[in-house]
Amino acid sequence: MAATTVDTPPFYCPIEPAVHPQAEEAERRALAWVHRSGLCRSDAERARFAGTRSADFYARFAPHADLERLWITACWVYWGFAFDDARCDEGPFATDPAAFASMAFSVQRALEVPGPLHCADPYAAALHEIGELFRASAGPVQNRRFHHAHRAWLTGVQWQIGNRATGHMPDLDDYLTMRLHSAGGEPTYAMLEIANGLDVPDREMDSPAVCALTEMAILVAALDNDRHSHAREISRRQTGQNIISVLMAHHHYSLPQAIEEAIALRDAVLERFLSLRDLITPRASAPLRHYLTDLGHGIRGNIEWGLHVPRYLTRSDPGPAPRYRIPAQTATSLWTDTPRTSRQDPRHLPSIAWWWKDPGF
């Protein structure tokens, strides 16, 4: 059955909104870098970059970051959305897993190599420059964590492209595993340490509890993005792998039922995130408390951004982006205080069931 768009219910998210007070200045600096990077060859491409509102996006994840670090992390978000559109969702690499793997890991290597590096691929060259900016702004541990997260993202995208190439629709558990990586949440959250100048001790960052909280924040944002992007993906015939399409295919839900179930599953994960974070925070170091707080800012900020960004509100490429005042939050009618109940109990899904056990800290 062909999918059609429907209005989605309000969001459950009992996390207060926040946005960096210098978000517009971060946007100005980041877009100036984008224009210098060589990635924009026309006014239409410049409008496409600006239309992602990437600085607004990351200003909500790290509302207390140092401006000098915030605009640099926003550069990666601009780069990431452009790379996702050009190399992951559309174009010749989007249906060729082998070609994507070769290209993606050349790009990854450009990120990891320090010092001068010639890159024929403009995406690799721009990412190398971002890597150099990160090395100048953060320590080796934070950069190593970001590199690891970036590689995991590209691996998840390769899995997604492999499914697309073979016409395979993953089941719910496989989809959630893939989406944890393919959504780009890992590098996005890994940048929190860089943006904030944090150094979370290994014993805390690598503890099962913090790993679980990070994964939950990634998945909640990924499933919210599935909601945000569903209409756009329908118009571009990209709905093969989306939480809504998975539930329709494997559980025979109608479109409204699939949307409701996707929201309920996401709400269950968010409730577990909030309860575990409340349990861990009193025992956390100051850097970890900051990180855990910004995990929540990322969840809320991703929703706020998605509700007004042209990327999701228009079915075609946005036109020139006018100057605008970045809003702190969206209308209250788009929010609910009541989580929904899922038929698909996430505690029975092997890939994420461990989040509901005592993960240890």
From TrEMBL:
Gene Ontology molecular function: any one: metal ion binding
Keyword Metal-binding on entry: yes
Stored Pfam families: Terpene_syn_C_2 (PF19086)
Alphabetical list of InterPro entries matching this protein: Isoprenoid_synthase_dom_sf, Terpene_cyclase-like_2
Names of the cofactor(s): Mg(2+)
Transmembrane segments: none
Keywords: Lyase, Magnesium, Metal-binding
Enzyme Commission (EC) number: 4.2.3.-
Similarity comment text for this entry: Belongs to the terpene synthase family.
Protein name: Terpene synthase
